[in-house]
Amino acid sequence: MTARIFIGERETAGIDPANRGLAYGDGVFETMRVHGGGVPLWPRHLARLQEGALRLGIPVPDVAFIEASVAGMLAGCNAGVLKLLVTRGDGARGYAPEPKALPAWTLALHPLPASLHGGLRLHWCETRLAVQPALAGIKHCNRLEQVLARTECVRQGCDEGLMRDTSGNVVCATGANLLVLHQGTWTTPPVADCGVAGVMRQWLLDEGMIHLSQMSSAQVEAADALALCNAVRGILPVANLGARTWQPHPAVARLRASLVEAYSMFSLPMGVDSTEVS
Questions:
Q1: What phi and psi values does residue 113 have, to the nearest 5 degrees?
Q2: Residues 6+ apart with CB under 8 A from 10
Q3: Domains (range + CATH), the chain
């Protein structure tokens, strides 16, 4: 991993223990696919970052400075995963923020994850997502619900897990959005009360390929096909969820082909070149 740390527009050597992102998860972040030395989905990631920071009242560093810093970090890098994290900065002990604190932010460049072969094995997570509309949709730094849920998946030997809210409505996977096929129509759960509005999910919505629909666990298990999507891996088919299994479905292949046509990076296998990140 290669990393850089900034306070405002000044690069620094480390994170202060008084950083509010470290203490309280007081920040937002984006995890982005790098391809050909750039971030093809950057405009969508930037828009969500700015929306999240606005809702939390965190000033975003100058965009031109961020973009120049990203370009410098990605020089000579053909493929990888770039994480941009913006926190409110440093503050005194206690929840009240310092009104004049400069945002502290980081860039971290990682190798692509290993490719997954075949359909995903999913687990119904017992950990529920709390309903909090003030935080819904944005990618804020408090991810303890996802940490607990993903731990369940590891214990069960599964690739991912589906999460519900406290009322039992299906929301998303721990690190991806859910796509459900029923009678030829793709739907995805709303994230107005909790969950993350993924940039890949939003692209599919903007293209009219999927529609919003609230759904129960039973409706998910009755689907003709399931898939997960996120900005790093693209669209991945699901093979089983508990005792329910699905065979490869042509509708999933068509959805993935449409994505590859728009973003060719998703046609490439991941994690095959140890020199991807330099």
A1: -70, 160
A2: none
A3: 2-110 (3.30.470.10), 120-266 (3.20.10.10)
Q: For residue range 6-46, what is the model confidence (pLDDT) as tens digits?
A: 999 999 999 999 999 999 999 999 999 999 999 999 999 99
Contacts for 71 with CB less than 8 Å, ≥ 6 apart: none
How many CB atoms within 10 Å of residue 37?
13
Residues 6+ apart with CB under 8 A from 224: 181, 182, 183, 246, 249, 251
Q: What element of type H or E holds 171? A: strand 170-173
pTM: 0.94
Residues forming beta bridges with residue 179, ordered by sequence position: 227
* CA 212/CA 224 separation, integer angstroms: 17
List strand residue ranges (DSSP E) for 102-152, in order. 104-110, 120-124
DSSP 65-109: HHHHHHHHHHTT--EEEEEEEEE--B--SSSSPPTTPPPEEEEEE
**Rounded (10°) angle between helices 63-74 and 42-56:** 130
